[in-house]
Write the structure tokens for this entry.
Amino acid sequence: MNAPHKYLIKGVSVLGRPKTDLLIQDGVVAEGDAKGAEVVDADGLVALPGLVDLHTHLREPGREDAETVESGSRAAALGGYTAVCAMANTSPVADTAGVVEQVYRLGREAGLVDVQPIGAVTVGLAGERLAELGAMATSAAAVRIFSDDGHCVSDPKLMRRALEYVKAFGGVIAQHAEEPRLTEGAQMHEGEVATRLGLTGWPAVAEEAIIARDVLLAEHVGSRLHVCHVSTAGSVEVLRHAKARGVRVTAEVTPHHLLLTDERATSYDPVFKVNPPLRPASDVEALRKALKDGVIDIVATDHAPHAVEDKECEWAYARPGMLGLETALSITLSVLGEDWDLIAERMSRAPARIAGLDGHGHDPVPGAPANLTLVDPAARRVVDPAESASRSRNTPYAGMTLPGRVVATFLRGTPTVLDGKAVK
Amino acid sequence: MKHLLSAADLDAATATLVLDTAAEMASLAGREVKKLPTLRGRTVVNLFYEDSTRTRISFEAAAKRLSADVINFSAKGSSVSKGESLKDTALTLQAMGADAVVIRHPASGAPHRLATWVEGSVLNAGDGTHEHPTQALLDAYTMRSRLGRLAGLKVAVVGDVLHSRVARSNVALLATLGAKVTLVGPPTLIPVDLRTEVCYDLDSVLSDTDVVMMLRVQRERMNDSYFPSEREYARRYGLDGPRMRKLPEHAIVMHPGPMNRGMEIAPEVADSARSTIVEQVANGVSVRMAVLYLLLGGKS
């Protein structure tokens, strides 16, 4: 092994502050002698703490044709991420210590981001009995977030037990809020567009009813709750109310719910099919506002790669989900503007806190772990699906011009991205 | 006009052109030789993913009367998991040189997808709960021939609007052509935000309506709690003799078929002089001839 490299990031603006130089050495942001350091010209670039994604589908094991831990890690690094939380709905499901350890190990081997596995709440995501949550918590993967994402833990008793049980090891339940009886056969947001297109509606109340129930359950048992992909104005109001009461609840919003509306379904192109579905502009507006004022804590991608055949088909037969890792920062930037401190909070510090990832979410200042990303805010790029590092191509942003570009990403002092390209 | 995917895509001029052309086609039906040479050498594929003998036969008759070669491709039974994808089927039809594909499919929007994969014209013959544009055209044709006009007509569309592609196409087309539509049915079967007049009480609309269009109600809907029982549905929303007698003298009763006699429509009504149900079938062939002619033959 070569001795760890030294890097001098010259003329960078840390979170929009005046220009400075950052020395990266021995895995931390250092002070001292920069002699012999490799210089990274960061004129015009902004340094952010490495982004943390609380909601990533890496598809391995099971659907390696759509994504692998390695390809997803590469997409993440290119998007400015240094850590991603891998959802449990793989095949086999990540509901045992064995599977979460496998994913954890694959992440280590890829070495592009820290891959933190999420464990399933129930065996096989079936919503019937608890998976061995404790075994996953004490495994090498040290799982702290548990989620049946893709499915809702809809049984109230089971949800209560899960919320209570994970208190023993500081866990949190991340709920996919969708009352299944209200969304049978649902294809898109229930509203004017769905009516016109003849697609079965997914009503906002199906999400809001579960969030309302869950915040009351979390309050009742004194547990932490995290709400995945909040998509409606009504959900925001439920969360606002719960937070005002002191309920320990956090919430995420996806980039696509911040940018796209249900009008996109008019093409019947399933690249716009996602769960929860794209909502009308009034919801998008409420989500943007909630992200700014903190009712929604974080941006999480819900990066969901799908093979071509699962999207090049009829809308009703397509799988829901869209890519997100490589575009999330640009979209957040377009929504929040160049408020770098707020972006760092919503995309790095807060998700790191929720996930309990102590080495992440620290501003790149001397003494901090060198998990950081450098962004060129002046750059504009046109999204080309063929350029994605993901194995899949199902980005809903094809052809759109987005602001900002990740120039470099460092994971514990080692570059994973340089000059906008993955190092390996 | 390249494709006919949705009645909502038709402007008033185009829709009127289809109806006028259909009238010319209808005049053929009285001749001894019912065939025109217009589409000789052109290939029309009927691609049916759902059973629908009446619609398929209607399209087949229409294409044959225009001298087109017709290929019937019944894709039913080739499930999505086991069978060929729609895209691969589209490429196959493309390779065979289909000039037009008439598609009936259980998934809303399938014709729109198909249109992105083939070079020929795509005709929507009913997609999921979305649209059935030629049905709306033949309904408009029927209304116009019976009542002499469309603008200003009061049309009540009664029944399971939520799941009805016929209703969606009719609402769109009739609005374009200046008729006034009222949707009637239980609130559970009226979709949100269709931007049309809604009434939950059938009796209150009958005395002031020119057309009553009864929709087929699937008995399965009962099991999904859209309404409590067939009997209650028939009592509240079925068109029976006493209700029919509340209609103005000139009013007509339509049904796209197949009917559930005794459920949404009483036999007495279906077989009455007001009923246009058999006429609708005959008009279907003329309207489909007109559409095929305008899509394939109109320009050459």
In short: The two ends of chain B are 13 Å apart (CA to CA). The CA atoms of residues 112 and 275 of chain B lie 34 Å apart. The interface with chain A takes residues 8, 80, 85-87, 105-110, 112-113, 127-131, 165, 168, 191-195 of chain B (CB under 8 Å). The longest strand of chain B covers residues 121-127.
